[in-house]
Amino acid sequence: MRKIIFQDLGLIAYQESWNYQTKLLEETIQVKFDNRKNGSKNATKNHFLFVEHLPVYTLGKSGDFDNLLLNKKQLEEKSIAFYKINRGGDITFHGPGQIVGYPILDLESFFTDIHKYLRFLEEVIILTIAEYGLVGKRSKGETGVWLDAGTPFARKICAFGVRASRWVTMHGLALNVNVNLGYFDHIIPCGIRGKAVTSMQAELGEEIPLEKVKEKIKKHFCKLFDAEIVNS
């Protein structure tokens, strides 16, 4: 069974986690490069990070700046950071009360299919929120997990955006648990107009313990990826 090193980094600034993800990705790629150069068979390491971020908007590499509805001064006034980053997807928000998961996986140890990888990440969240009575679904042509997908009441509860280099992944998923949804009013989330964003708290009418949700995410992640979590 594949092993995945788990770390919960807690509440940290976005740049710090981005730097750390990049470091882990580059270390993994270096092992793969050395193996091919030297004919060795050193195993690559797989990682799964949990974080909560201080308030930040991130814009994917093909995202549209017009989907950010605040100017630089307004961002500063509201103490919200902004980063243009190297993942797929458009704009989203990260903040306290949201579980952000960053798998840094060598997909050559699992399967070399990015679309399948994204569907697996979506399935992890669909199974997790189902334990709370929430029916998550996919929306055709729109990566993410939605409630009431395909209806006028569709609302996104989890966003996804990934990057892969030499089949090593980074970035990942952002599940709205107890996050302040007001922050999403200042963007066009994921560049999709006319659809709402929700959270587990908003849907269930009560604050949800983050640690319990994290354990459920880890459980379903391990089952789908046929892996075992080991703590760092």
TrEMBL record:
InterPro entries: aa-tRNA-synth_II/BPL/LPL (IPR045864), BPL_LPL_catalytic (IPR004143), Octanoyltransferase (IPR000544), Octanoyltransferase_CS (IPR020605). In the reaction, the free carboxyl group of octanoic acid is attached via an amide linkage to the epsilon-amino group of a specific lysine residue of lipoyl domains of lipoate-dependent enzymes. One of its GO terms (cellular component) is cytoplasm. Substrate binds at residues 87-94, 159-161, 172-174. This is Octanoyltransferase. Belongs to the LipB family. Its main location: cytoplasm. The keyword Iron does not apply.
